[in-house]
Write a structure and sequence with these properties.
- The chain is an alpha+beta fold.
- It has 2 domains: 26-125, Immunoglobulin-like; 133-193.
- Helix content is 49%, strand content 30%.
- It has 2 helices and 9 strands; from the N terminus they run H-E-E-E-E-E-E-E-E-E-H.
- The chain has helices at 2-26, 127-200, and strands at 27-37, 42-45, 54-59, 62-68, 73-76, 83-85, 90-93, 102-110, 114-125.
- The strands form 2 sheets. It has a 6-stranded mixed β-sheet. A 3-stranded antiparallel β-sheet has the order 2-7-6, with no helix packed on it.
- The longest helix has 74 residues, at 127-200.
């Protein structure tokens, strides 16, 4: 009796193991990274050739679309009117915006392949901002050296003008001193001649 119970227990464990292995084999997951620019059209496609399948589309674990061929039932819970699923294997997002960034998944269930899940990590980039930042960076790289060069040139010109004026003032002052000496010498000569004339007479 105990032997029969132990064999029953072993067979139950083996069956549970086989069932869990089979269910694990039926679940397949594919992951992809996808990026798009602001305003573009993004299309995500679940490849499936089997008939009588069910499809579940999610964004960040939130259900946005489900369809069952067997039940002929469709449910739409789109988070935006820019989303469309047609046929059930293709999700299209028109004129993508920054808040469309996230994780999108499509789960397909059919009798032949079991459960398969495809997942996309969608990233939306703002090219307008990137271009503006690049343009600003380029402008700064051109403007700053030009401005520094202009300031240095102005300072150099001011220094040259100041030195020229100073030199001219020094030359004028030097000439004035020589003129006074010459004038004083001439006056002394005239005075001496007058005195000499007076003595003779």
């Amino acid at each position: 009796m105990e032997t029969l119970l132990s064999w029953d227990l072993v067979s139950v464990v083996i069956m549970l193991f086989l069932v869990s292995t089979e269910s694990a084999a039926d679940t397949t997951k594919y992951q992809k990274n996808k990026s798009a620019s602001l305003g573009e059209i993004v299309t995500l496609v679940c490849n499936n050739s089997e008939m009588d399948a069910s499809y579940i589309w999610k964004k960040d674990t939130v259900l946005i679309f489900s369809h069952s061929d067997t039940l002929n039932k469709t449910e739409r819970r789109f988070t935006s009117d820019r989303m469309s699923v047609d046929p059930p294997t293709k999700l299209t997002i028109f004129n993508v915006e920054l808040h469309d960034t996230g994780s999108y998944s499509c789960q397909i269930t059919d009798d032949q392949s079991g459960v398969r899940t495809m997942e996309w990590n969608l990233t939306i980039t703002n090219n307008l901002t990137d271009h503006a930042e690049h343009g600003l960076r380029k402008l700064l790289l051109f403007t700053i050296p030009s401005a520094i060069g202009g300031v240095v040139l102005c300072i150099t010109i001011c220094c040259i003008v100041w030195l020229c004026r100073k030199r001219k003032q020094e030359q004028t002052s030097h000439c004035d001193k020589h003129g006074e000496v010459s004038l004083n010498g001439t006056q002394s000569t005239k005075t001496f001649a007058v005195m000499l004339t007076n003595n003779i007479s």
